[in-house]
Write a structure and sequence with these properties.
Layout (H helix, E strand, L loop, with lengths): L6 E6 L3 H12 L3 E7 L7 H18 L3 E3 L5 H8 L4 H23 L3 E4 L9 H15 L12 H10 L11 H17 L1
Parallel strand pairs: 1-2, 1-4, 2-3
Helix pairs in contact: 1-2, 1-6, 3-4, 4-5
């Protein structure tokens, strides 16, 4: 594919560490990548700010063109996820973020949209695909899926080498609770 015919992909970026592997990997596919930050699920707000600032550092270092949607729509996230089981919560969270990304992709003439969430072995890939396909039908922009979990450890190593902040939970209040409640529980059984 020549540079004149590169397809434009809008990449939802959850955080800098995941992007360290996904961005260069997609560039190898001869795609023209623009990142899009929209993560109203991240809690608390200080964590949201830390992830956003770290992504800005990475984007500057890597020359990744970015769109920063800094809306902190936590109430929308909670309204869609409260009272639901983990798999349904995650699906609703994926839909919320990908809906916004795909709407922007359609408005700006992108050929595809995708997400860096596809690198994580901790994310529900079936639910990401389901959300991506549903949102694709709504907005008329194809969802680009590639299983990138092979790069998860590499992304962490790259983040460490670049001295980027590495978070230790998905981002939402539910994953924060699960991560840290489990740590407290394990400390009682040790």
């Amino acid at each position: 594919m020549s540079s004149k015919s590169k397809h434009k992909l809008l990449l939802h970026t959850c955080c800098a560490p995941c992007t360290t592997f996904v961005y260069p990997e997609l560039v190898k596919k001869d795609l023209e990548i623009t990142g899009y930050f929209y993560n109203p699920n991240v809690h608390p707000y200080k964590e949201f700010e830390k992830r956003l600032e770290t992504l800005k550092i990475y984007a500057s270092l890597s020359k990744l063109p970015m769109v920063y949607n800094e809306a902190y729509d936590l109430e929308d996230h909670l309204r869609l996820t409260m009272g639901k089981g983990a798999s349904e919560r995650c699906l609703e969270c994926y839909k919320l973020r990908l809906y916004t990304v795909a709407a922007y992709a359609r408005a700006k003439g992108f050929d595809y949209f995708s997400t860096t969430l596809l690198i994580s072995p901790h994310q529900n890939h079936a639910a990401i695909i389901q959300a991506g396909m549903e949102i694709s039908r709504l907005h008329g922009v194809p969802f680009y899926y590639e299983d990138l979990r092979r790069g998860f450890q590499t992304s962490h190593q790259l983040a460490k080498e670049m001295k980027l902040y590495l978070q230790n939970y998905c981002g939402c209040v539910f994953s924060e609770k699960e991560r840290f409640a489990r740590a407290v529980e394990n400390s009682y059984t040790a």
